[in-house]
């Protein structure tokens, strides 16, 4: 699932592609769960608009348009935003990916999972939004309008401070892992980066949030920021569906210390990495190195 680093990488890469371009034509799939704004309405609202900027709030992208309206995009579990120049097996169904490994790379042709395609007046590369599982979201926001999805977001995880994390942890008996995933506390952190940050801060994911000492809170806040910044530098994590807008993979998955490494040796103590379920989410950690 795309988390803050993946969404931020998409934002940074797409800015140079779409900002200042005028939308000439929109193609949409038929109405489905992705469309919080109905396809026909979305087409009429976006038609002719110029994209002025792309912003991010937590895991949400906001395309700012020249009439001060905004297009909100959430990538959900499997959402992909990429240009028509992108080439990647990840842009095809999982079943057909293995067969593609030995054939020459094909230019993407919109399929039934492509919910939105934007063509620009300069006839340059198009922008596609594709999502096989339809947990992604598309929502048009009129000038000055917000949405509860944005309003309930907590502090952006890239700017988390020890003070904020300390206040949020106070008297909270939930596991620190669950607190990190709570988007109303910390916007943008998901399973991968919570596990990686807790390992690097040497904290057990099942520790009660309220049990963290001030020094531990300080280290954790700093580590969350550090892990996210590093993941952004490496283009995010490509595991299943995520690709950068040009179709290339992120590289952070090659540096995982605990996430997805159950049974493999800890890089520090060589003991096996353990996986447990906390708050219905898999958590990966080293029982020796994390306290
Ligand atoms: Zn260890």
Task: Characterize the structure shown.
The protein has 291 residues and is α+β, with helices and mostly antiparallel strands. It folds into 2 domains: 4-150, N-terminal domain of MutM-like DNA repair proteins; 155-285, Orthogonal Bundle (Helicase, Ruva Protein, domain 3). The protein contains 8 helices and 12 strands. It has helices at residues 4-18, 39-46, 94-100, 148-151, 162-169, 176-181, 191-200, 214-233; strands at residues 23-28, 51-57, 60-65, 70-74, 79-83, 114-120, 127-131, 137-141, 155-156, 186-187, 274-278, 281-285. A 4-stranded antiparallel beta sheet has the order 1-6-7-5, covered by helices on one side. It has a 4-stranded antiparallel beta sheet with strand order 2-3-4-8, covered by helices on one side. A two-stranded parallel sheet has the order 9-10. Strand 3 and strand 4 (70-74) form a beta hairpin. Helix 1 runs parallel beside helix 8 (214-233) and helix 7 packs across helix 8 (214-233). The protein is globular and about 55 Å long. The model has no long low-confidence stretch (mean pLDDT 95). Zinc ion (ZN) is lined by residues 266, 268-269, 271, 286, 288-289.
